Amino acid sequence: MNMPPTRYRVVERGRRLVVIDTLHGNLPVSHTPRAAHESRRPRALEAPKPAHRPSRPAPPSPLGDRTAGTTFVTQSWFDAKAPRRVRIEPETTGSAGIAVIVALLGLVFAFMLFDWLVLVPLAFVLLHPRARKGVRAGVTKWIDGLDQPA
Hints:
By secondary structure, the chain is α+β, with helices and mostly antiparallel strands.
């Protein structure tokens, strides 16, 4: 079974597309303009002006100003007093970096020695609420020691 022929056909005449109604003798479909919506108020052709909004301050850099020590913003998953901005003086920056590097190297070394057995205490710390709270309290106390008065 074949489909019936379409009623409308689109052709190009003079670089314009014209729709032809084949049901009524191949006549072009006439375009009847719609009545313009009349409004009682005059229409402005200007773009709307944006409302004045006070500019927001730039977000703090996680590394802060290097000349006056380093500052960073703590997160709630590791700091009980978060979010807060902690400032570390250049003299203590080295000891804090060394402590983090030693902790990471210790974790890598333990994983090399004991393989998957390292994951058991790590999973315990991550999943047990009391252990997680104790680790957060220890990290918060350590960050309090690093924080210098601004």
